[in-house]
């Protein structure tokens, strides 16, 4: 067994890997366009930047290359439309996906515009097609649940969002990907804080919320605070 393998025995993302992270505005968080990579804070101000910073600080010699391809307002249908350019053409070793907030949100803030809605069957069908298209091209995939910061689980939008989170959980099992329960991480925050202290609109988190997402992501990939130097 080589030294590199020994060092990365807990960390699932390998040495010198390219990690592409795709999603909606929560992933985007003000990243550089058209590709979130390069100089001058290209990864935005959210969890992607935090993941990159913590990997770089704890594993400084391993050079994981993080690319942010989040885009505000996106649904799973929008990801499908740009999948070739923004995922496959970038040739990632690892791919993380967090999508579904807008698929649900448009059903509630734009109820009279059904063309903007992505109902559960279409969401799951489109998501599965993207995974089938991608799984043989990458080392690994990380699926992250969408969320809505609402402690009342009977709230209609919260209940609907939970359906989509369950779809992601089911797909992670079906495709044997890594799984990040972002919804659970956010619920842990709501045990101590009102949603308005984490996200003014219950969707776009502040730094605390983004750090909770980053923490959940890093736990899923086997990050250790001691790291390897």
How would you sum up this structure, described in words?
This protein has a 5-stranded parallel beta sheet, sandwiched between helices. Strand 4, helix 7 and strand 5 form a beta-alpha-beta unit. Helix 5 packs antiparallel against helix 7. The protein has 9 helices and 5 strands. It is 43% helix and 10% strand. It has a single domain, classed as Rossmann fold, CATH 3.40.50. By secondary structure, it is an alpha/beta fold. The two termini are 18 Å apart.
Secondary-structure blueprint of this entry?
Layout: H1 3-7, E1 18-23, H2 25-28, H3 47-58, E2 65-68, H4 76-86, E3 94-98, H5 101-109, H6 120-134, E4 140-144, H7 156-175, E5 178-180, H8 182-190, H9 207-220
Parallel strand pairs: 1-2, 1-3, 3-4, 4-5
Helix pairs in contact: 3-9, 4-6, 5-7, 6-7, 8-9
Give a quick precis of the structure:
This protein has 229 residues and is of the alpha/beta class.
Global outline: globular
Helix content: 40-55%
Uncertain segments are 1-8
Based on CA atoms alone, the radius of gyration comes out at 17 Å
Question: How many structural domains can be distinguished in the coordinates?
Answer: 1
The CATH architecture designation is: 3-Layer(aba) Sandwich
Number of helices: 9
Order of strands, widest sheet:
2-1-3-4-5
Structural class: alpha/beta
Number of strands: 5
